[in-house]
Amino acid sequence: MTLAGAVMPAAAQSADQPKRGGTLVFPIHMGEPNTLDCHAASTPGVMWRIAPHYSTLLQLEDDGTIKGDLARSWKISSDGLSYEFKLHPGIKFHDGSALTSRDVKVSIDRMRNPPPGVVSMRMGMYKDIKSVETPDAETVVLRLSEVNAAMLNLLATPYACILSAQRLETDASYPAKTVMGSGPFRFVRYVPGTEWVGERFDSYFMAGKPYIDGFRALTVSAAAATNAVISGQVHYNLRGLTESQIAQVLASRADQVNIVGTGAAGDLLFVVSLNTTQKPLDDVRVRRALLLALDRQAGAKAMKQLTSANVIGGLSRPGSVWARSEQELEALPGFGRDVEAARAEARRLLKEAGHPNLKLRFTFNGLYSYFAVLMADQLRQIGVTVETQTVDSLSLAAVKRSGDYDMLFDNLPEYLDDPSVRLGWFLPFKTNPLNTTRANDPLLESLYDQQKREMDTARRTVLVQKMEKHIVDNAYVIPLYWMEWQRAISKDVGGLRSMPSNFMKINLADIWLRNAGTR
């Protein structure tokens, strides 16, 4: 993954030493969590709260490299089918019990083959793991049925947290309703609508970490999150800022903040997911017509005034190794610049399919109402009437589970550029509840499997782009815009710089406060 965003000033990059102390404060604008189970979670609003309390086998650094978390070392067999991990000694859970290889095995088994009643949102991504062995308390061996070029990345996602096997056996509310891991921070309290609080875990297995005493994640509206940054009530924002909002921050606190992320696409792509199980969206002609209706260039200009999600791109992050050139992208349906020709073809397809005056329901998170306005306007150009249904973050998760929608505002996984993660979202719905298109496409699954087996990046890119074309040709989603993740970070914060994803540095162990909380 290529690091995105503007580079901080040299003074902010100086090798100042981490200090201990203070409380980190940041706002969460995504509403209340619908679960506390990281294996069942599907939104960053959950992970921003619970990730500091859990450990994973591996972690992704902000430059895209893999580092160990619970694993102090690992080796991969020459045939790529065996991964052996050595755990740090003396790891403890927050209740004082020891974390061993058994806990890692039970957690991975729970993700790849969940027991009845347990939801694993990423089950399909781990299907190549055929067994997990534990030769001793500090050794974990994964046996794969097939080579998987993304396996280390998959184990580094914060959603792959390691749970207590003993607690899973004895506590029916764990981990969906209770929080207990081995991460750098113990859970203190959660006050719905107000805050989530964690404190340093003094028995954390990484000596000297975490640096801060604790953190407070404030539950706020999107507008309040921005205002908190402008007023200096928080150390940084998680929501991307528009140019006008950045101007407000600088007018108020220019000497106190660094602005990062300008001029590059972050890892968040918003899409309109088309429910292929609902008529007439089971007809590819209808879906293709909807895809062709969007004037991406004009829409990007309009969105730039309203949101930081305004960067045009395909299904791979613009600027990443997997992405198409601008010319290649414009050759895909719905990405060309001749909008009138595209809309004429859209109207022809709707007429051919027997739906020249179609009415569809668009369900979306109220945080992003401007996209509902955009879609209603764009689809009106081809004779489609859009009925909008606004829901909050919690309700949107329920709608996704129910399948009661025509068009749904959604986003592809944003924690890794790797196509096995991002495009894994499109794996068949029968084994992949993340897929809100609800399609079960065997050819798409075959293309996915081909790309993840290919270890050569250049050849793999060809396969990834072939899969991308298949998805666009079938119009399973209408890609909207990538996020330009512009942020304001207080100069008091150390260990945090520009990065392409808000899933990096998410456990807060490496972050410190230069004034040690005396601000």
Entry summary:
The chain contains 15 helices and 20 strands. The chain has 519 residues and is of the alpha+beta class.
Q: What does this entry look like structurally?
A:
This protein is 28% helix and 20% strand. With 519 residues, the chain is of the alpha+beta class. The strands form 6 sheets. A 6-stranded mixed beta sheet has the order 13-17-12-16-14-15. Strands 1-10-9-8 form a 4-stranded mixed beta sheet. It has a 4-stranded antiparallel beta sheet with strand order 4-5-7-6, covered by helices on one side. The two termini are 35 Å apart.
Q: Roughly how many Å apart are the termini?
A: 35 Å
**Class of secondary structure makeup:** alpha+beta
Estimate the helix proportion, in percent.
25-40%
Largest sheet: 6 strands, mixed
Please compute the radius of gyration using only Cα atoms. Answer: 23 Å
Reconstruct the topology from this structure.
Elements: E1 23-28, H1 44-50, E2 58-60, E3 66-68, E4 71-76, E5 82-87, H2 101-112, E6 129-136, E7 139-144, H3 151-156, H4 165-170, E8 185-191, E9 195-200, E10 214-219, H5 222-231, H6 243-253, E11 257-260, E12 269-274, H7 284-292, H8 296-304, E13 309-311, H9 326-330, H10 339-353, E14 359-365, H11 369-380, E15 385-391, H12 393-402, E16 407-411, H13 419-422, H14 442-453, H15 457-473, E17 477-483, E18 487-490, E19 493-494, E20 512-513
Parallel strand pairs: 1-10, 14-15, 14-16
Antiparallel strand pairs: 2-3, 4-5, 5-7, 6-7, 8-9, 9-10, 11-18, 12-16, 12-17, 13-17, 19-20
